[in-house]
Amino acid sequence: MQLTTHSKYWRGHLTPGLDAQGWEYLVVIAKAAWTIPMPGQRPRPLLPPEIEMSDRWDEAPAKALRVANDLARFKPRCDILFDGMAHSPSGRPERSWVCRFQVGELRKSARLHGPRNWQRLLGVVSLGDAEPTLTVPLHYGAALGGTRSQVRRGLGGERQIIEAHADNPDGRGWFGPQTLSLCDGEPAPQIEAEKPRIKAPDSKAAPHALGALPPYAGSRRRHAGTYDEAWQKEVFPFLPQDFDEQYNQAAAPDQQLAQLRGGEPVVLEGLVAGQAKLSFQLPRLDRLWAHVHRRDGTLQPLALVPDTLLFDLDAQRFSIVWRAALKLRRHPSEVSFVGIGPADAQWDSDSSRCTSCAGQGSFRTRPDDNAAHDMQPEGASQEAVA
C-alpha cells in the first residue's frame, strides 16, 4: 500500500483499527505543525513532527505522560493539549502565577507554583513556601495525586500498604489515610485549579493540569469497558461491547472541543517564554481529504477531521492531527493507494490512468508550501463505510 501527501508540510500514516463490533478499519492520519507566532505574526508552517507511535513519558522525577500516541481509531471530540514547561509571565523567577488559555470558546486556567513541600509543625500539616522558578511542567505528574507505599511491622510480621490516587496515580503531594503520616517534607503539587486551592495532603480536589491523561486515569478508564471473565471467554481478543470511543480522548473533559474548524482565536497567558500574553488565530483546517484507491479501481474520498491540537511550549510550535477511518470489506490489502491533500480533481483524473494499482505512481507530492494553510465540509464525518 502506497501513501503520499499533497505537501511537505503534512505527514501521513496508515494504521489498522477495530471497533467494539469487531469491524476492521483502515485509519488515515495526517499531521501538520506551525510556529506559535510572536505578536504581529501569523503561524508559519513547519516540517511536521513524527507521528507518535506510542505514549511518550517523562520519567524524572516521577513517571508522567507527556504526549499520547496518535494511533486512535476515532475521537468523538477534539483534544486541546499542552506539552512542555510554562514560563513565568514576567521573565523572572516567581513563586506562583496563573496561566490561562483559550481556543475558540474553550477556556481554562491553572495556578502554577515553584517547588514546595508539605511540612508538619506541632502536629499541623501545611504548605511550605514555594521556591521562585522560571518554569513549571504542565503534565499530571506535577498535579495532585501519587502512589505511596509503607511497610508496617506488627505481631503478624511485615505488611506493605500501598495507596494510590484513583484519578492520578502519577501525581505528587497526595496522601491517603494509611500514609498521611509520611507527608512531612514531601513534594506538594505544583499545578492546581485557580480555585479552590489545595490546602491539605489528603485533599479531595480533582487533579488539575493541562497535559495528556494516561489510559488508566479515571476520566478515561470509565470508558474502557468491562474486561471480566465473560469477556475473556466470549469476546477476547476484541474490545468489550461497552467500550466507548471517549476512551481515546487524552485530554481532560474541560479541554475538549466538539469540533475544531480552524480560524478559532487562541490566547496563551503565562505559558510562552518571553510573552506574558499571546493572541493569534488558528490557520484554516477544514479542507483536508484522504483519497483512498482500491485495487478494483474504485475511489473512496474521506474527509479528514482535526481531533488533536497540541501546543509544544518547549519547541514553540503547535501541531494538529487529522483522522478518518475507512471500514474495510475484508482486508487492508484491498486498498492500493492513499493520497492526503485538499480535494483535487487533478489527483483523481491522474489516478484513473494507472492500470496496475488504481493510483500507484500517478499521485505525486505537489510543491505547494502554503497548502498547510488551506485545508471537510461542514458536518463531515471521520468514518466512512465502503
Description of the structure:
This protein has 386 residues and is mainly beta. The chain has a domain at 88-209. It is built from 3 helices and 27 strands. Strands 2, 3, 4, 7, 19, 24, 25 and 27 form an 8-stranded mixed sheet that branches. It has a 5-stranded antiparallel sheet with strand order 18-10-9-20-21, with no helix packed on it. Strands 1-26-22-23 form a 4-stranded mixed sheet, covered by helices on one side. A hairpin with a 4-residue loop joins strand 24 (305-312) and strand 25. It is flat and about 80 Å long. The relative contact order is 0.22. The model is unreliable at 350-381 (pLDDT under 50).
What Rg do the Cα atoms give?
24 Å
Q: What best-fitting shape do the alpha-carbon axes yield?
A: flat
What share of the residues lie within helices?
under 10%
Number of strands: 27
Largest sheet: 8 strands, mixed
Strand portion: 35-45%
Low-confidence spans: pLDDT under 50, at least 5 residues? Answer: 350-381
- H/E order of the elements? EEEEEEEEEEEEEEEEEEHHEEEEEEEEHE
Q: Given the structure, what is the number of helices?
A: 3
Tell me the distance between the termini.
17 Å
Question: Mean pLDDT, nearest integer?
Answer: 87
Class computed from helices, strands and strand pairing: mainly beta
